[in-house]
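Supplementary notes (optional reading)

For those who missed the lab, this is the record we used. Protein: SLA1 homology domain-containing protein. Length: 312 residues.
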Amino acid sequence: MGVDTMLRITVFFVFAATWFGLDAQARVWTDSTGNYSLEGDLVAFDGADLVLQKADNTLVGVDLEQLSEKDQEYVKSKEAKDTLDQKGKGEHAWEMRNGLKVIGKVVDYMRRDVTFRMFRGTIYVNDQKFENLPEVYQKITPLVAAHFTERNITDRAGLFDWLRRRRGEPETFTTEGVLLELPNGNHYAVPFFLFSDKALLALKPGWDRWAASAQEYEDQQESALYLQSQAQAFQEDAQRTAEFQKLQLQLQGYTAGLFSLWEVVLYPNPGTPGTALSVVVPGRDSRQASITAMERNPGYSVGPVARVNRQF
């Protein structure tokens, strides 16, 4: 392996550490008997059940009571809560079949009847006037009608034309899908058939179990928890893919001499626990590198900054 290749690999890993950070070592979980253990990260907990993500990204559901006392105490600790809160931050973008992207957090599965009817020229959806529906549902309900009737219904006008032909006869469709919590905090039912095939890979696997346990509250809660974990893992994987692509572009930019690598020394501000840090970040100049370093390390102030020598 030549020096050039070695240096490029070194720079690649510098960027990898810069963009992805250094992941904390996964926790080793032990069962109450002490005979079995599992290594993984805590990704969800609802008070009775938890979901762990192994190194290969597979998810494992565990009852809290099955764990050792030490692990049970950890799950209930502030440290575990802060970890879960951090994982839950950020907006999730779900791609629809028509290319639209909806920002929202998946919270549960749903099965709901949607009834359309017209009375004296007014469209009603589940006994609510169409005009009084939330804007999200004003966009979704025409697509529900279009899906089940196989008609070209895309808006209120399409609904009006279809229902006028029915002469007041109501029509009910049963929809299956997920509940999305949008940034405004409200929950909306979104049918599976509106999502892209890629999104369904994350959303659909637990549906059969949820549907089969319609009368069992605890089973449905477990299914909902698994769904949330699967959706979170899907979004994190998509983010890693996007960051890796960005990483490759950064590496190409460095190789082409568009910017340099900078070593930035950071000192903790008063009240910030920790010691001085030395980080390597990309930047066109020392000022940009300093800003980047502080953005990625809140609570620190910039010390000496030095350009990393380019050797190829």
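If you only remember one thing from this example: The chain has nine helices and 14 strands.
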